[in-house]
Design a protein that fits this description.
Layout (H helix, E strand, L loop, with lengths): L3 E4 L2 E8 L17 E9 L4 E4 L3 H11 L15 H19 L4 E4 L5 H8 L4 E5 L2 H10 L3 E3 L11 E7 L8 H10 L1 E12 L2 H6 L11 E2 L2 H11 L2 E7 L5 E7 L18 H18 L3 E4 L1 H9 L8 E2 L17 E2 L4 H4 L3 E4 L5 H10 L5 E2 L5
Parallel strand pairs: 5-6, 5-8, 6-7, 8-9, 13-14, 13-16, 14-15, 16-17
Antiparallel strand pairs: 1-2, 2-3, 3-4, 4-10, 9-12, 11-12
Helix pairs in contact: 5-7
Amino acid sequence: MQPWNYSNEILEIKNVPFYWRLKENSSEHHILPSNMDFRFALNKEFGYFEYRLSEYEKNMISSAYKENENIGFMKLDSGQIGTYGASSNNFFVNIAKKYRPKDILEIGCGSGLTIVELNKNGFFAEGIDPSEYSKKCSNEFRFPLIEGFFPIALGDKKYDMIFCNDVYEHVFNVFEFSKEVFNSLREDGIFCISTTNSTKSIKIGDISMLEHQHVNMFTDYSIDKILRAVGFNHVEITKGTYGNTLQVSARRSKLSNNFNEMTEIDTRLFFEKAVKNIEKFGTFYKKYENVGFYVPLRSFGYMATVNAHNNMIYDSNKSWHNKYIDGYSKPISNPIEISSNKPDAIFVGSLTFFDEIKETCKKFGITEVFSIEEL
């Protein structure tokens, strides 16, 4: 049976590894599944793509958030504190310096390292998070934590500034979530977001953006539309200084709106392009006896369309090397291992870092290096 299908304006891919942690061995979790199907569709009202979740999948993802794990880059051992982490930290601190809020809340604060940074700069910030990991970090780094999910655990508290870092793409109903944030801000309060920028992937029909926890895939246009529909104004959207992120600020204010000049992508063409890309990828995969994959999280969606479950996977992040992801049999390899296991070709899941990765592969003797754009 073909492991993917497109019908009734929904693209479904079967048996995709469920990434929510990195682990030292291939052992399975005793409750959470190692693989789940992925199906997503266009939200026609706001122009973003959303994971169409079953109740079982919602429960499993929610359960993962309560574990003693943090999948984000704001973690001391993530290898990304000085890259993605620095970009987002600088953004949130600069917003706080601009608006001078009396109190700040981070939703889904994880390790709390951004809260620590804000407190160092003279602001009072606290976090809300349901995970055992966050509870442990709040004790270690001494930041105030509200234990539980937003908004239920928050009660009637109001803030001058609320922000979320690598969270907005994870919430199950982003419109209702944004409305709850709006209602939890005082007048003239500011909402700040750092989130994955899926604009290019949506434009070219690239399914590398698929990941179970990323239940929303945005363009700048769709985020702007959601926030204004909730009632926010003075929405400002820029790109992060590292990688491919959107950094957003929006005010709850009675002042007149600003307006952003942004190009709306014709999202209706996405699925037509995505199907062609999946078919091209299938042809590519059959052409070579031994295909390696670079940036596994961006490759798993494509790999699942051909039932690739035993290929070598590589990543530049040193802290990931020799770690396992649930649902996949091989550990994540250091790129230097390309020299010894010599794949015939390498598929690079990342569009953002493709040129850099291609040069790395060439240094290790691989000339057949492709992203979905090159196939």
